Amino acid sequence: MNSPFSISADTKNRLYLYKVIIGLSLICLTYFIGSALIAEDYRERISRWPMEVMGTAHSSKSSFCRNRCRPPGSEALPEGVVVQTSNLELRPLWDSVLVKEKLKPSLNLLAIAVGVKKKKIVHKIVEKFLSNGFVIMLFHYDGIVDQWSDFKWNNEVIHVSAKNQTKWWFAKRFLHPDIVAEYDYIFLWDEDLDVANFNPQRYINIIKSEGLEISQPALDPVKSVVHQSITARRKNERLHRRYYKSKGSGRCDDNSTAPPCTGWVEMMAPAFSKAAWQCVWYMVQNDLIHAWGLDRQLGYCAQGDRTKKVGVVDSEYIVHLGLPTLGVLERIKESSETLRVDNRPAVRKQSFIEMQVFSQRWNDAVKNSKCWIDIYKQTDQQSN
Fold first, then answer.
1. Number of folded domains in the chain?
2. pTM
């Protein structure tokens, strides 16, 4: 006869065995399920491996290239094929060997607004600048190009034509800094200038040695139409950077720091260094084609102190003839008579309007620019 103690022990052994069996079953089930999941994940990772390797390489390459400056829009191109700048050199349709035989590339540019009525004056200007190695660009504001073909230099210069547009309209559209980046100096002149006493290369030598970033030749005070006294030539001087006025309103002395006492040139015959023009081009407004008002702000583009970097060259001077250009139209009537229409008063009125618009834009920009610092504000207030 079995004792109650043996029955209890046997029951406990069976329960323990059941637990062991159930535990082993769960472990096996977990193993098989886990193996299936791991295998699936492994197969997936294996299939993705080439992509991941390429992605890692791409990520590494992107990290390397992220901080390299690229012109906007060129990111899709291989870096070695990207040409960031251009120039105005004429290229031959054949015999490109002739280009290699050219001794030196042109280092300076003259862009000048012209009309066929001023051909003789322009001819003298172009000849003088061409002989000194300049590239010449003619802006034809009257739309007439073919009547310049009688000059030998006609095929050596670049012609751009658009009726009744100013040189600033042309400059904004055809003298982008990337296009003229190869030229050390950009001259942007009117056509009614006598250059009998002007030598371009000597002028370049002076402004280089004096560190002038923005300049103009002085005007003969006797023969010229002089609008601003600072532009009048001083005899026996090489150049000057300021104007003195001791009487009346708007006095100018050695303490003056603002235009028109100093840091100022007129818009009729300015010359800009490459660095200065890169700044001025952005200041030229797309819709304000007369550019009145820009002269007072040019000093911000002078690459330094405008009282030192802006000046008027006396030893190489010109004569401003003051001849009417834009606004004077000639029409042929049915009787073959020439009818001369003078819209100069309207042009002048528009110039004043644009000057006011530009002034307001400048003031609004100064007020709203959060990061811009006016480097001349304190000195101007002290001067005033």
1. 1
2. 0.77
